[in-house]
Amino acid sequence: MSSRSPEESLRIAQALADAAAVESMRWFRTPLDIITKADESPVTLADRAAETAMREILGTLRAGDGIYGEEHGLERLDAESIWVLDPIDGTRSFITGSPLWGTLIGLLEGGRIALGMVDMPVLGERWVGQAGIGAERNGQPVRVSTVVEVAKARIVTTSPDIFGPADWQAFDRLSRACAMRRFGGDCYGYAQLAGGTIDLVVEAGLQPYDYLGPAGLIEAAGGVITDWQGRRLGLKSDGRVIAAATPALHGAALALLNA
């Protein structure tokens, strides 16, 4: 199937986010049956219903595209265009009634991130970035901060629990050198970085559906996001992610992580 225009890609991503929000908000702050997956993360009926709705749209509009989804598996990963879907990023936030969960959508074109979206249905904020075009929140342009020094940086991660002992030691070393460190927020930390109010996000134990949507947003907003070795993120990255507002800050933070 032929490649799409950036405008068409954005329209499809918007439709996917709209469909996911209908399902997820229908279940938010209601009693839910919680299932524990093999990786010990909780799944809810809302997760599965939201991804099903997204897949139905892609089946209608882009039947030849690949899909890398959290809940319903992988399809056609040899396709030129691959949609990476996380219907509810921050399931623990969702099931405890916190508003800081979101829907993540990434689009890979020829293995490169062409579009990334962080949609926050409860907050009413939709953050989207497109390669070569820029990033926006609810239609308004956003940009990362200009911070270049670790000592002036505001850093966030979801939880200390996501790190193994060695990775926690590395994160602790870096974060204590920063001006401020915060925990919590799941995918919202990446949106905050794209909007210039956070300067660093460092995490571990992630899957492609956790980081490729945010990566498209951050790169479009002028930031840098890689693995802990400074390599570009892709479907086979090791799940350790560092996102920074500027190349200088990224380099300095990497040096502390790997000290």
Automatic annotation (TrEMBL):
Q: Is Metal-binding one of the keywords? A: yes
Superkingdom of origin: Bacteria
Q: Which cofactor does it need?
A: Mg(2+)
One Pfam family named in its UniProt record: Inositol_P
What keywords appear on the UniProt entry? Hydrolase, Magnesium, Metal-binding
Family label: Belongs to the inositol monophosphatase superfamily.
Give the protein's recorded name: Inositol monophosphatase family protein
